[in-house]
Specification:
Elements lengths: L8 H13 L7 H30 L4 H25 L10 H12 L9 H20 L2 E2 L6 E2 L1 H11 L3 H14 L5 H16 L8 H7 L6 H30 L11 E2 L15 H4 L11 H6 L4 H14 L7 H6 L16 E4 L6 E4 L6 H19 L13 H15 L2 H6 L10 H16 L1 H17 L7 H13 L1 E2 L26
Parallel strand pairs: 3-6
Antiparallel strand pairs: 1-2, 4-5
């Protein structure tokens, strides 16, 4: 079969399917290994081309670049679909080498929604995905604190973090949902339909897209395990919620708080109330101890985005991990462009699939939360670089949670007072019980507060994929979950004309969240 794998990828796929394989399974393991070698080379090239096109769109949102991403989607989907079809002609389940069997299993299983056989539907899905991202990334809100229109990253985010006027926060909160999620609802229904149709055509007999996404964890008890973990942490979360609510009631009139014990969703310092670290100064247990916050220090020392990323790189190299390649600094987008381009600012780490090109896309603000996010994103890149020489089927986390665990483990280490002092951002470390409790409160606001939110997003999304939640009750189910698990409620009346899930980036971008 060696000669076959020297041709262009699609000519080979058709040749293998229609001429060589016929109705019989290929039983020689050496032929299977040769197929895997070919697949590794060809998919690396396909991935590089695909992600290059995606990068151009994410860093320059234009109709031209959107059309290019759709074409790239069609090409990549066809390759993955045809490669899986060809892999199925090998008798790989009876091969001896477990690693080879694992590779074949992943090739046949990873088809997912790319199994959509109709090119027009692949284009339709690509257009819907691109349009949702475009709406989200271009959304602005006007008349929050003045007549100006402001975006999320550098306008609304600091208002939610620093402003404590109830009505100003409400204008920002509602305005963002009107400008983003409300415009996405109809597209999302179309998106769900296409994903489900695709995944039902894929190997694996998946009932819907949610089942496919959960299968990535390879655990028959996955959903029960999540419920058990949440149940174990619930008492701690409930105590944190009660404490924060009491302190916020001192800040705002008590009639703003319902008797049910819920907290208005817009006063927790974050557009989605996903973490509460920005209300730390309100709930800080011991006010006479210095605050563990280095935003002012970063600004006083004239840090820019590149210097924050260099600081993160030094952290990893001090652990013996590799330095970033020169191309990372040349090609990454570390700050919001000033040339008028519209971009997707949401932080993300990119592996272009060719074992050389690694980048981060982020509109970095000079703050302590962003310093931690940079270390998290850098954790992804380091993980990518450390397995770059693996076969392409193994160039991903063991499951989707591994990457996030690495990034968050690093973030926890970086945010300790001793480390911040070591890198010159904190003047002194207070070694006393009160300071320790202040630090633990800050961590709880950042991490414990996040857990129910991290849990419920995919509970909602999986319910939509399964059909238990439909477009007639998208928003109701969303708020039922947020009230149940987070103990927050919407500060103004919501209806099915709204689509509040779409105001969170990971919904229009299709990014799994339970990880």
């Amino acid at each position: 079969m060696r000669v076959l794998f020297e041709a262009s990828c699609f000519a080979v796929l058709l040749c293998v399917t229609n001429v060589i394989l016929g109705e019989n399974l290929i039983t020689e393991e050496s032929d299977g290994i040769e197929f895997l070698d070919w697949y590794n080379t060809e998919l690396s090239e396909v991935e590089y081309n695909y992600w290059t096109v995606q990068w151009k769109y994410y860093t320059n949102i234009t109709d031209f670049n959107q059309n290019k991403t759709v074409k790239a989607d069609v090409w990549r989907s066809k390759f993955i679909r045809e490669a899986a079809k060809n892999a199925s002609h090998f008798d790989w389940k009876n091969f001896q080498n477990e690693t080879v069997k694992r590779m074949f299993w992943k090739i046949t299983r990873n088809v997912g929604p790319t199994a959509l056989g109709d090119p027009e539907k692949v284009k339709q899905l690509g257009n819907v995905e691109a349009e949702m991202k475009k709406i989200y990334s271009e959304a602005v809100v006007c008349n929050v604190t003045g007549s100006d229109c402001i975006d999320m990253e550098f306008g609304l985010t600091p208002i939610m973090a620093d402003n404590r006027n109830y009505d100003t926060l409400l204008r920002a909160w509602k305005g963002w949902r009107d400008a983003s999620g409300k415009q996405i609802g109809d597209l999302y229904t179309e998106y769900v339909t296409l994903l489900n149709e695709g995944v039902r055509e894929a190997p694996g007999d998946y009932a819907d897209m949610g089942e496919y996404l959960r299968d990535w964890y390879e655990s028959s008890t996955f959903q029960r395990d999540l419920q058990d973990l949440l149940r174990q942490l619930q008492p701690l979360y409930s105590q944190l919620h009660a404490y924060v609510r009491a302190r916020l009631q001192e800040q705002y009139p008590q009639q703003r708080f319902p008797k049910s014990g819920h907290i208005p969703a817009h006063i927790l310092g974050n557009m989605w109330a996903q973490n509460w670290e920005n209300v730390y100064h309100i709930v800080q247990p011991y006010k006479d101890r210095p605050e563990i916050e280095v935003t002012s220090s970063l600004k006083n020392q004239n840090y820019n985005a590149t210097e924050i990323f260099r600081t993160a790189e030094q952290f990893f190299t001090s652990l013996g991990w590799p330095s970033l390649p020169h191309s990372f600094w040349e090609k990454s987008m570390l700050s919001k462009p000033t040339d008028g381009r519209k971009v997707v600012c949401h932080p993300s780490a990119w592996d272009f699939g060719n074992s050389k090109d690694f980048r981060i896309k982020m509109c970095t603000a000079i703050t302590m939360p962003e310093l931690i996010v940079v270390h998290h994103e850098m954790g992804h890149i380091m993980y990518d670089m450390l397995y770059k020489d693996q076969h392409i089927t193994f160039r991903e986390g063991a499951n989707p949670g591994f990457h996030e665990a690495i990034g968050d483990l690093i973030a926890l280490s970086v945010s300790t007072p001793s480390h911040l002092k070591k890198i010159g951002l904190l003047d002194c470390v207070q070694n006393d019980t009160e300071s320790d409790l202040n630090f633990l409160m800050a961590q709880a606001l950042r991490k414990i507060a996040f857990i129910p939110f991290g849990y419920l997003i995919d509970q909602w999304r999986w319910s939509v994929f399964s059909g238990n939640t439909t477009d007639s009750n998208y928003n109701k189910h969303w708020w039922d979950l947020r009230c149940q698990y987070q103990g927050i409620y919407p500060p103004v009346e919501r209806s099915e004309e709204d689509f509040d899930p779409g105001a969170k980036y990971h919904i229009p971008s299709g990014t799994p969240y339970i990880r």
